[in-house]
Amino acid sequence: MRITPAEITALILSIKTALLSLIVMFPPGLFVGWLLVKRSFPGKAFLNTLVMLPLVLPPVVSGYLLLVLLGRHGLLGGFLFDVFGIELVFSEFAVVVALSVISFPLLVRGIMGGIQSVPSELENAARTLGASPVKVFWTITFPLALRGIIGGTILGFSKSLGEFGATIMVAGNIPGKTQTIALAIFNAVQLAEDATVYRLVFISTVVAFVALWLTERLTLR
User: Fold this and answer.
1) What radius of gyration do the chain's Cα atoms show?
2) Are 38 and 115 in contact (CB under 8 A)?
3) Average pLDDT in the 9-36 region?
4) Whole-prediction pTM value?
């Protein structure tokens, strides 16, 4: 199975943008996951629904909303273009944003599962001994929830690798610039390049299988 340079470029771009999206969404994902598990506050149900919304929304709808927000005439995109001359859509940055939005719910769900598994008695004991909330989190909650956090991180990363709908809406399908492996498969199907489709589908399937297997191993132990 010989992979062409264009396919390698799409694969590298997919991995690169998936890793960047993971870096972007992990800190807020960790905070939101902890907040939804450990705190009660007005609007908690609304926040949880908002975070999980991309799981049930068609990815194309999420992509369209991002396009409206980040486009040249959008609220954020228009400001950046008028003030700094920066155009966000149809760029690598748009790919990262699309991947982050679609993968964020899976990351948060994994983090929430990990934090929920931590015995509250241990955290309460640490507070009784004078530990601050920050110290309790980093010395008790985070280490004991680590398997769930890693599992959510792997799921978020693997979802980013396979994301299609939102990416093509807000970033387009530009070879060498925004064409990820999922978009390369779509392009190859349109051109009836069966050999390319088989190769890329095989690579995507292997990556997805390994990601799910690692998640199961981590969360079931």
Assistant:
1) 20
2) yes
3) 94
4) 0.89
